[in-house]
# Entry
Amino acid sequence: MKWILGYRGLGIVIHGGAVIEDDVNVGAGVVIGGRSGLQQVPLIKRGALLGAGCKVLGPVVVGRYAQIGANAVVLKDVPDGGVAVGVPARVIRVDPAPDEL
# Structure
């Protein structure tokens, strides 16, 4: 496993059941966790970038090389190469993954 944790993990909360693949960059203050009433937890795929303070909650898949903006609240899946921002987060762009170029 190779992750990059902002400020050495300062303020980062990761649910024990969450799956995080390799080469993921997690900003400071990020929460990767569950939601009330739902058993499933997030899957963060290879190369994703999670901006500072974002929340990824519930049965969500963050695709390969997706980018989540700072302070976004992700409640729905983000496709491979997707860029999601806002509260709740919405996908504003989908870029090709580096291995698809």
Observations:
- The chain has a mean pLDDT of 91.
- The CA atoms of residues 29 and 53 lie 4 Å apart.
